[in-house]
Write a structure and sequence with these properties.
299 residues, 13 helices, 2 strands, 76% helix
């Protein structure tokens, strides 16, 4: 729904927001693939969060953005950041760092839309229709086919630490999405981002000091990956995600995460030569249909 004064350009941008979010979010794979060979996971993420915090702080002060009114409000916003940023990204990066294949990591995290839908009813009072449940289940099948149909060497190794880390990422992004919807609906994206990224930088920095060497190879590839992840992911994609959560039901927003593995697979094919077989293409078609089902209006 749009206000009467909404311009055609504003309406077009709002309509394009879900597709833009999926496109930007999917590029996180590219940034991780380029940057992780040059820095350990927690070190890489801590630097990313620090830079994002500084950029948003400058923007917040320059635009006189409103800050959280009470310590309790700031704490709720910080917790959302710890779940959605430090927990999710730290879990995914650490899992891949232990040797867990990226495809298996993506498959575990791919349960997020189903888990989010299961929590949306009891925690937020949102009604998930049968068509939406069908779409969410179909999307999971599609992700399995996409990952099975990518013709590249799996490599890596499956360890308890890697599986546990991927499961932690799944749980934190799921609960973080629900928490963001329930407790941070009025959050200003500029000052809220400062609080969330600042808290995440502290948490990830502590993990880096505890478990890593903190050595960074400052190559052009790493600098590009870092800049891309800060500007495109931390500022652009996360801002779009929170806007979508604020505007819609979390089950429908969560279903968009099903589109990121297929879009990432296409990017990997274009940039790194990872081939796509017929099974993967079928999976992409199923995912597209699944998201359409999950985002239909109530029936």
């Amino acid at each position: 729904m749009f206000p009467p004064s909404a311009s055609p350009a504003h309406r077009a941008f709002v309509a394009a927001m879900p597709a833009l979010f999926v496109l930007l979010w999917s590029t996180g794979f590219i940034g991780a693939k380029l940057g992780l060979p040059h820095a350990e996971p927690f070190t890489f993420l801590a630097i990313r969060m620090l830079i994002a915090t500084a950029l948003l702080a400058v923007l917040a002060f320059a635009t006189a953005a409103p800050w959280p009114r009470t310590p309790a409000e700031a704490a709720r916003i910080a917790l959302a950041g710890l779940l959605n940023q430090a927990g999710y990204l730290g879990g995914v990066f650490y899992a891949i760092g232990t040797g867990l294949p990226a495809g298996i990591t993506a498959l575990i995290v791919g349960f997020q839309p189903l888990l989010t839908a299961a929590l949306a009813g009891p925690l937020l009072g949102e009604r998930v229709t049968r068509a939406q449940w069908a779409g969410l289940g179909l999307g999971l099948i599609g992700i399995v086919l996409v990952l099975a149909g990518r013709e590249h060497a799996a490599g890596g190794q499956i360890t308890p630490a890697g599986i546990a880390s991927a499961l932690l990422a799944l749980l934190t992004i799921t609960f973080g999405t629900v928490w963001q919807k329930r407790h941070c609906g009025g959050m200003d994206l500029r000052t809220g981002g400062v609080v969330q990224y600042g808290a995440s930088a502290l948490a990830l920095g502590a993990l880096a000091f505890a478990f890593e060497t903190r050595i960074v190879d400052w190559t052009p590839a790493f600098a590009f990956a870092l800049g891309w992840l800060v500007l495109v992911l931390s500022v652009g994609a996360v801002g779009l995600l929170y806007t979508l959560i604020r505007r819609g039901e979390v089950a429908r927003v969560g279903s968009l995460f099903y589109l990121t593995p297929p879009v990432t697979a296409l990017m990997a094919w274009a940039m790194f030569g990872e081939r796509l077989g017929a099974v993967a293409i079928l999976g992409m078609a199923l995912v597209a249909g699944a998201v359409w089902l999950a985002n239909r209006g109530p029936r």
